[in-house]
Amino acid sequence: MTKVLVVDDAMFMRTKASRLLTGEGFSVVEAANGAEAVEAYKTEQPDLVLMDITMPVLDGIGALKAIKSIDDSAKVIMVTALGQRSMVLEAIRAGAKDFVVKPFQPDKLMEAVRKQCQ
């Protein structure tokens, strides 16, 4: 079973993504900020990370860089609000595989996830 780490400081966004993923047969682990995400990545070793860019403690780009330093082959999809183009470009340069704009459409999110899990 494919394990996905869902990282977002907004609980309702984590819940929405987690419900969608578990309903599609994925195993889900959650983290509320980038620092938690890095720790969860180390302990849970997920197959894929779905990560918000804007978060307290450690933002998504910082967490992405930390995760990539632990595992260069880590697959990370960034979740971003509209208007964060420069941050998305920075995330792609730092190794993000894809990005999804929120509020996300369930089909768009699942399309991005499935593309990374092939």
Helix amount: 40-55%
User: Secondary-structure element order, as H and E?
Assistant: EHEHEHEHEH
Report the strand count: 5
Beta-strand percentage range: 15-25%
Describe it.
With 118 residues, this protein is α/β, with parallel strands linked by helices. Helices cover 47% and strands 22% of the residues. The protein has 5 helices and 5 strands; from the N terminus they run βαβαβαβαβα. The protein has helices at 11-23, 34-44, 60-70, 85-93, 106-116; strands at 3-7, 27-31, 48-52, 76-81, 98-102. It is globular, with a radius of gyration of 12 Å. The model has no long low-confidence stretch (mean pLDDT 95).
Topology:
Blueprint: E1 3-7, H1 11-23, E2 27-31, H2 34-44, E3 48-52, H3 60-70, E4 76-81, H4 85-93, E5 98-102, H5 106-116
Parallel strand pairs: 1-2, 1-3, 3-4, 4-5
Helix pairs in contact: 2-3
Short description:
By secondary structure, the protein is α/β, with parallel strands linked by helices. 47% of the residues lie in helices and 22% in strands.
